[in-house]
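Appendix B, example 12.
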Amino acid sequence: MTRVVGTHDLLLVTLDTLRYDVARELAAAGRIPVLARHLPGGVWEERHAPGSFTYASHQAMFAGFLPTPAAPGPHPRLFAARFAGSETTAEGTFVYDTPDLVSGLAAEGYRTVCIGGVGFFNKGGALGGVLPGLFQESHWEPEFGVASPTSFEAQVDRAERIVAGLPADRRLFLFVNVSALHQPNWFHLPGATRDDGDSRATHAAALEYVDRHIGRLFAAASSRRRCFAIVCSDHGTAYGDDGWTGHRLAHESVWTVPYAQFFLEPEEHGEHREHGQHGQHGQHGGAG
């Protein structure tokens, strides 16, 4: 990251509540072709979430503690605040002297922008202003929220406008919290009704919905220069697994999350960007 920060734009996308097993199965079945094209080797990396619900997990990630590889460590981190005794700060780690990654990137000249999704990014309440308050610019509207069947399309529309309005020489750190996977998600499965409720199948349908539009987000993020992207879940959720439902609980369906990091290459042709084809990609840098 010491060779990336300052030269590249940065994109962090949290697919809020996405389960690792569902993400893995859809990639293997060819049901998320745009995302799969960018996954190193076409597969998600299995990691452990830093928190069991949105607020806790994002506080950790914005402090530099991304989801941890699901294998014995220690695992060098991409980003870390400077503090004595850190065992996961390595030679290539971007180290900052501010309390969090967002302000650390701002100190490097980045424009920091948050496009919120779930309720913890709704600034209508005091708690909902904490995470967006880390950014120089933040956006949330009901159209971005969990109850909107077109939430991700609206978020991508906003991202495109933000990128288009930036000076060409200004580096960008864009964060998008995608709410579409979070309950309620029944409306993403054709034929499902409110009475049917949410299920693992509607969760999967929501990820397919995101995949249909995420190419536009990748295109916007890489439209000005090469972009380093992280796409991951902040936590999973249970749909009756071993009797458990929801999250903010200690179950494998909650703690195990999908993760990917890759470079997005600027494209000369708009039709390539629309379909999410961004040249070379693969895993670079250290682990979170």
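The first strand starts at residue 9 and ends at 15. The longest helix spans residues 200-221.
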